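Sharing a chain and its predicted structure for anyone who wants a worked example. Both blocks are below, sequence first, tokens second.
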Amino acid sequence: MKPKLRCASGQVMVTCADDVLWLRTKHRIVGSLEGSHPANPLQNNYFGLPLFLMPEETALLIECDVICIEGDKFEWPQSERDQLRFKLFKDLHGRGFFVTQGIKFGGEYLLYPGDPLRYHSSHIVSLVDHGQTVAARELITLGRVCTAVNKTRLLSSWNPHTDHITHITLNWSGF
């Protein structure tokens, strides 16, 4: 039986702990716990249910026909940028990575080689428009940020002519 997830105001949430575990172990879907911890509701270090899903995670689960959505209608992607993000997310997820939000480090996504509870992220992913020129100063900035947090920058671009995503890694090493 498919888990029934709730959609409210465009946010899809998982409220059942068994469903959270199933999504994580069987589908590499991590989401973000946002609820207060029942034993200590005033602390900010550990969160509990519900688990909120990124739109990309929800769209992938719908595409794979493994969940049902109750409540508001889930409508995503809504823009061309959303479509590119979804293609990138599917590509990275399809390569076996756990994929989470990357805004904390100035990227689209963070990549983990295994479950984020056991592994540190290895890459910060940035989506670059196909054919876009990236200034040297920006490359240096991206590289330095990754060096400071011990990660590799992955510059990703979707080629509309080949319908394929290209990835380039960037490491900064000061001489």
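Comments welcome. Strands lie at 4-8, 11-14, 32-35, 48-53, 68-71, 98-101, 109-112, 123-127, 152-159, 164-170.
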